[in-house]
Design brief:
- About 60% of the residues lie in helices and about 10% in strands.
- With about 625 residues, it is α/β, with parallel strands linked by helices.
- The radius of gyration is 35 Å and the shape is elongated.
- Among the domains are: about 280 residues, ABC transporter type 1, transmembrane domain (ABC transporter transmembrane region fold); about 140 residues, P-loop containing nucleotide triphosphate hydrolases (Rossmann fold, 3-Layer(aba) Sandwich).
- The mean pLDDT is about 80.
Length: about 625
């Protein structure tokens, strides 16, 4: 159960200063915590002595002041302790959540695709909170409950050891019960977290497809599905609450069972003269304060068990915690500091300038879980600075080729070489900005056009003159001038405020700006122009050819691979590769292949006929 706390040592080190200050305050508090009850008893005895003429009013006054002082000596450190430990707990949760997100970003794509997005959201969100409760119980309740109760037990033993042992006899039963119910707590907590993951996944998917649901009149079915998952989560969550809620009165009953024993045995001691009334009141007050917190000790055990269950779900996500080295001085004492927040983000770009040569050596590639390979023993050489067009029928392997080039998924066999070096062996510093990529569906984030192109929160990674050139290459210059705030125009979630063609061109601008303030050595475009007209497509490719082709300076030239089912851009290509069933069917220039009787010629003629038909229809 406590093993997860041992594994979280790096997170405790990140807030070690706050934990130390909170612990010192906790020690002071728990050292003084018995004083109010003891001093109250003495004040009562002084007041009774005053009635008998055995004490003065000054004695009673000083006893009252001592009681007030003892209370302040307890409560002031309590406030300091809770402040330092609560803020430390908040920092731990924030750091764990950041590391979980950082870890998922580093996952292999196959693992990302196997895990539902809602499950990841539930873990990074809800499971971190459940873990935080366990950590909070450990860091705070250790002082508020464990040592707090221990101080009272020691004081009770000093006053009357025999009566104390008798009064505390039910306590071991509560601890045994807490340990015995641990398996139920862990199991029910895990099932509840899994249920919220399923619910989050469903909500995320249905909100993303809300237009489809409305169009097909399936909104009610979507509501029923989410409602069913909500009921399942409620049932599982209630099972956890019922278990913990049912155990709490049992713990309290066991803890308070000693009160009856104290009243019975303590009253006999007072009658026999073995204990004064004040001492009895002080003893009873000490025990009642112990009971008020002591019943939380077995609850603390249950909270740690829930935290362990949440950590087990989070562990596969977590990236290694950031070391405290490199943090600002005394960062562990700063309540609002997050690990790594003060470290500068350095985009190391050590690759040489100029185009990159690309080679595929006998590459066999299979999508995760697919029954057959998408590429079969494919070999291809793309000279540095060339523009290569790749086409073929649906399912021929065009998108698979881009994924193999990018290294998004592991290869089944073969190798991809960039400048004669295996892609998998390139250091991160050299891979940064090496490849620009535009997928079939360019994913845009909420924020401004500038932020989406440079993928930086403030868009500060590239100067305006560089972005202006990038927009010109992507044939977005006129569109940007028409936007109300230019590059700083907010485009909405998923780019909802701009057209589909503009979204693709923003994605192209992002791919070109991947190595800002320079240009990538290799630009991979996967069916990039499906949402633009043929004329715009030709203008885009002509702009890319002019900007990065043989006529450009060497440091500005880029190797371009265009995978597309549309062939309007292919006359500008240096070479064309035709795929079929994951193998190369034909290679050559556009003119050579169009003049032949092969697959490319048939595709080209069919598209020409289709274009002419559309033009004739428009003229009519």
């Amino acid at each position: 159960m406590l093993s997860f706390l041992w594994e979280m040592r790096p997170y405790f080190r990140q807030v070690a200063g706050q934990l130390a200050l909170g612990s010192v305050a906790g020690i002071i508090m728990n050292t003084a915590v018995v004083l109010p009850a003891i001093l109250l008893g003495r004040a009562i005895d002084r007041a009774l002595s005053l009635g008998r003429g055995e004490a003065t009013a000054a004695d009673v006054g000083w006893a009252a002041l001592a009681f007030i002082g003892g209370t302040l000596l307890t409560e002031v450190p309590r406030i300091a302790k809770r402040w330092w430990l609560m803020t430390a707990n908040a920092r731990i949760r924030a750091n764990v959540r950041a590391d979980a997100f950082r870890g998922v970003l580093a996952w292999p794509m196959a693992d990302v695709q196997r895990t539902p997005l809602g499950d990841l959201m539930a873990r990074i969100g809800g499971d971190v909170e459940v873990l935080g409760v366990g950590v909070r119980e450990f860091t705070i309740e250790t002082w508020d409950t464990v040592l707090f109760s221990l101080s009272f037990v020691v004081a009770l033993l000093v006053i009357d050891p025999g009566l104390t042992l008798l009064a505390l006899s039910p306590v071991p039963l509560a601890m045994i019960l807490a340990h015995a119910t641990g398996r139920w707590v862990v199991g029910r907590t895990t099932r509840a977290r899994e249920a919220i993951a399923d619910l989050t996944s469903a909500i995320q998917e249905h909100l993303a497809g809300i237009r489809v649901l409305r169009l097909f009149g399936r909104a009610s079915a979507s509501v029923e599905r989410v409602a069913a998952l909500s009921r399942r989560f409620a049932e599982r969550n209630l099972s956890v609450i019922r278990l913990k809620g049912g155990l709490q009165p049992v713990y309290t009953t066991l803890m308070t069972g000693g009160v009856l024993l104290i009243v019975w045995q303590g009253s006999e001691r007072v009658i026999a003269g073995a204990m004064t009334v004040g001492a009895f009141v002080a003893y009873l007050e000490l025990f009642l304060r112990f009971v008020n917190r002591g019943h939380r000790i077995p609850q603390l055990v249950n909270s740690l068990q829930s935290g362990a269950a949440a950590y087990a779900r989070l562990r596969p996500l977590l990236a290694p915690a950031l070391a405290v080295e490199g943090e600002p001085p005394r960062a562990s004492f700063h309540p609002g500091h997050l690990a790594g927040a003060a470290r500068p983000i350095v985009r190391a770009l050590t690759r040489r300038t100029g185009p990159a040569a690309l080679s595929l050596r006998d590459v066999t590639f299979r999508y995760p879980g697919a029954p057959t390979p998408a590429l079969r023993g494919l070999s291809l050489d793309v000279p540095a600075g060339a523009l290569i067009g790749v086409t073929g029928p649906v399912g021929s392997g065009k998108s698979a080729l881009t994924r193999a080039i990018l290294g998004i998924y592991p290869l089944e066999s073969g190798a991809v070489l960039i400048d004669d070096r295996p892609l998998a062996e390139l250091p991160d510093g050299e891979r940064t900005g090496l490849v620009g990529y535009l997928p079939q569906n360019a994913f845009l984030f909420s924020g401004s056009l500038r932020e989406n192109v440079v993928l930086a929160p403030d868009g500060a990674a590239a100067a305006d003159d560089f972005l202006t050139r990038v927009m010109r290459f992507a044939v977005l210059e006129e569109d940007v001038r028409a936007f109300p705030r230019g590059l700083d125009t907010e485009i909405g979630e998923l780019g909802i405020r701009i057209s589909g063609g503009q979204r693709q061109r923003v994605g192209l601008a992002r791919a070109i700006a991947a190595a800002a303030p320079g240009y990538p050595g290799l630009l991979v475009l996967d069916d990039p122009f499906s949402a633009v007209d043929v004329g715009t497509e030709a203008r885009i490719v002509a702009a890319l050819r002019h900007a990065f082709g043989p006529g450009a300076p060497l440091e500005q030239r880029v190797t371009i691979v265009v995978c597309s089912h549309r062939l309007a851009a292919f006359p500008y290509a240096d070479a064309v590769v035709v795929l079929r069933e994951g193998r190369i069917e034909e290679t050559g220039t556009h003119a050579e292949l169009a003049a032949s009787e092969g697959l490319y010629a048939r595709i080209y003629r069919a598209q020409r006929v289709a274009e002419m038909t559309v033009v004739d229809g428009a003229l009519r």
